[in-house]
Amino acid sequence: MPTPADKTMFEIYREADYGRQFRVVFFTDLDEHNKEAEINRAMAGEHVYDGFLVDRRKDEGKKKLAEIIARLNKGEAVTPDQIERELTAIEAMPTS
Fold it and tell me: Is residue 22 left, alpha or beta, with left meaning phi > 0 and alpha meaning psi from -120 to 50?
C-alpha cells in the first residue's frame, strides 16, 4: 500500500468565474510560489472530484485527468462515479 509520500493529491473543480471551465489542481505538486493562489482558486470553485494518484503512475494519471477535463469542458456529462472508474484502472484512489 502506498504511503502518503508516494501519492499526489488532486481535485477536479469548476471555476466560479464567468468562464466556468473545469480544471484540475495537483495540490502536492504546488510550490510556495503558486500554492496559495491555486488553492484559493480551487476553493472558490465548484468541487467535482478529488483523489490521489500513485506516484509510480502519476504521468499516466495526469494524462487521463487531462482527457477527463477536456471532455467536461466540451459539455460531456461525466459523473464522479465515471471518473472514479476510469482512474481506478491506473491505481488512482478517491480521498474518501
Answer: beta
Q: What would the pLDDT profile of 39-59 be if each residue is shown by its tens digit?
A: 888 888 999 999 999 888 889
| Cβ–Cβ < 8 Å for 95, 52 | yes
Q: Residue 47 sits in which domain range?
A: 4-94
E strand or H helix that includes residue 60: helix 58-73
H-run or E-run covering 90:
none
Contact 25, 42 (CB under 8 A): yes
Give the three cell numbers for residue 74.
466540451
Can you give the pTM of this predicted structure?
A: 0.84
Q: Which residues lie below 8 Å from residue 29, measured CB to CB, with a gap of 6+?
A: 8
| CA 68/CA 74 separation, integer angstroms | 10
Report how many domains make up the chain.
1
